[in-house]
Write a structure and sequence with these properties.
Strands 1-2-5-4-3 form a 5-stranded antiparallel β-sheet, with helices on one face. The protein has 3 helices and 5 strands. The protein has helices spanning 2-41, 73-82, 87-94; strands spanning 50-53, 58-62, 103-107, 110-117, 121-128. It has one domain (2-128). By secondary structure, the protein is of the alpha+beta class.
């Protein structure tokens, strides 16, 4: 009887651990697909200035500058909106000057760093929290 109960307890514990691991994997998969899904929803796949990197865990967004090609602000705004970037972050992006250097921000599941220069435009790198 003790062996049966011990086996049952071990089986339940193993099942719970595997279920938790499966949930973590599912969560990581959902998080790693957020960036590619946002880019696709905004019709920005194969758009100059929109580069999905690190198997969907990071993203480089570049706008057009005086001396470089990139995505338009509507496309960049769409992708950030799909990633649930807060209004405070998009406002900070819009007010960044060349003299400000690299700026950073974060929101649920993501971090971002960006620079701006009139010659190169706005350059934003978005990364998922699980790199």
């Amino acid at each position: 009887m003790f062996f049966g109960l011990g086996g049952l307890a071990i089986g339940i514990a193993a099942g719970l651990m595997l279920g938790a691991a499966g949930g973590a994997v599912g969560s990581a998969l959902a998080e790693s697909s957020a960036i590619p899904n946002a880019v696709e929803k905004c019709a920005a796949v194969d758009t100059t200035g929109v580069d999905v990197m690190d198997k969907g865990k990071s993203l480089n967004l570049r706008t057009t500058g005086e001396e470089s090609e990139g995505a338009d602000f509507l496309t960049v705004g769409c992708v950030l909106t799909e990633l649930n970037a807060p209004d405070s972050l998009t406002t900070r992006l819009g007010s960044t000057r060349a003299l400000d250097g690299t700026q950073t921000g974060e929101w649920a599941g993501f971090t971002a760093s960006w620079t701006y220069h009139p010659d190169n435009g706005l350059n934003i790198i978005v990364e998922t929290a699980n790199k």
